[in-house]
Design a protein that fits this description.
The protein is mostly helical. It has one domain: Rhodopsin 7-helix transmembrane proteins (Rhopdopsin 7-helix transmembrane proteins). 81% of the residues lie in helices and 0% in strands. It contains 13 helices and no strands. It has helices at 3-6, 13-19, 28-56, 64-88, 95-125, 130-133, 136-162, 168-210, 219-241, 243-257, 268-285, 289-296, 298-334. Helix 5 packs parallel to helix 8 (168-210). The longest helix is centred in the middle third of the chain and has 43 residues, at 168-210. The termini are far apart. Mean pLDDT is 81; it is low at 1-24.
């Protein structure tokens, strides 16, 4: 079963397309994008996010940003794993359940990226009070609220998909509302917060250069700055992966359902291929975060080295204990 072709049922054009049986045949380009692009990228991303989660779990001190990055690893892996299973399986038993999980995990990925960027902005603008503001209880409550919000949006959209007797215009309005509230508005907020973060970082750099007394550079300050860069790169990938694809889906669904008029018409073959390309971009967005952690985050590299040293120490202790046991057995047998 071609799943990227099937996920067009997340929009209103699926109701019309499925009635004519057009979902059974898909362009060969989609098969190539799925098998040569999405599946390998998702498998590599699963391993990378799992490794990143293991490394971040080595951090014993509480930090709001690292907690959110752990959550981001989890939900990105939920999205990638569900997507791979749906593509590789010949038949999806519960297609709407799969679409529901994909939608929730995608929305949570965007919202958690937004939350992590907010924590970095507070760390820059309120460095002395950020720990009092972002207490563990508040961050946990915020994450739970975001989860409920995304689940509610996707539940309404899924109910609209299941209820095929609903008018086409109403289903399209529900789909547009879900895309607007779940993706477009958070991405706009993400853009604004990143701009504010860059402005404050530039001001801080200008003040430090202009001041007569140089501020002592510590490892903690340097690690904090590099973490800002890593979160900023994750936000840039979100900007690249989601907005254009979401706007294309909304526009294509409106044209396909006859709700809006646009002079340029894209047939089903073109629509499916473009959708597959955007799904590939979203898969890349959920897979490349570990690269930013390794390149920019000193804290992540230190935690990774700590994990490696712990594994090496465990291997040495196991080898020592095994050699001691074998030598003891040899001594006993010689007696």
């Amino acid at each position: 079963m071609n799943f990227t072709g099937f996920t067009e049922s997340a929009s209103v054009r699926s109701a019309t397309a499925s009635g004519h049986g057009s979902m059974k045949t898909d362009p060969p380009e989609i098969y190539f994008i799925e098998k040569a692009g999405i599946v390998p990228t998702a498998l590599v991303g699963l391993l990378g996010n799992l490794l990143a989660l293991v490394v971040w779990m080595a951090e014993t001190r509480y930090n709001a940003t690292t907690f959110l990055l752990k959550c981001l690893c989890v939900w990105d892996n939920v999205f990638l794993l569900t997507f791979v299973i749906a593509i590789l399986s010949s038949n999806v038993a519960y297609p709407y359940a799969v679409i529901f999980v994909l939608g929730v995990s995608q929305m949570l990925s965007v919202h958690i990226t937004l939350s992590a960027t907010v924590t970095r902005l507070l760390a820059v603008t309120r460095p002395l009070h950020v720990r009092d503001i972002l207490t563990p209880r508040r961050v946990y409550v915020i994450h739970a609220g975001v989860f409920v919000w995304c689940t509610a949006l996707e539940s309404i959209n899924t109910v609209a998909l299941v209820k095929t007797q609903l008018p086409l215009r109403l289903r399209w309005k529900i789909f547009v509302s879900r895309q607007t509230l779940g993706f477009i508005l958070p991405i706009v907020a993400l853009l604004i917060i990143n701009v504010c973060l860059l402005i404050f970082l530039r001001k801080l750099r200008a003040v430090s250069r202009a001041s007569l007394q140089r501020r002592p550079s510590s490892a903690a300050v340097s690690a904090d700055r590099r973490l800002n860069i890593a979160v900023f790169c994750i936000s840039v990938c979100t900007f690249i992966a989601y907005p254009v694809g979401i706007l294309f889906q909304v526009l294509a669904d409106g044209i396909y359902g006859g709700m809006i008029y646009f002079p340029l018409y894209c047939n089903r073959r073109c629509t499916l291929i473009v959708d597959s390309v955007f799904y590939l971009m979203q898969t890349l967005n959920s897979s490349v975060n570990i690269i930013f952690y390794l390149v920019f985050s000193t804290q992540f590299r230190n935690l990774l080295l700590r994990r490696v040293e712990r594994v090496r120490g465990l291997r040495r202790s196991l080898s020592t204990s095994s050699s001691f046991t074998s030598s003891k057995k040899t001594g006993v047998s010689s007696v």
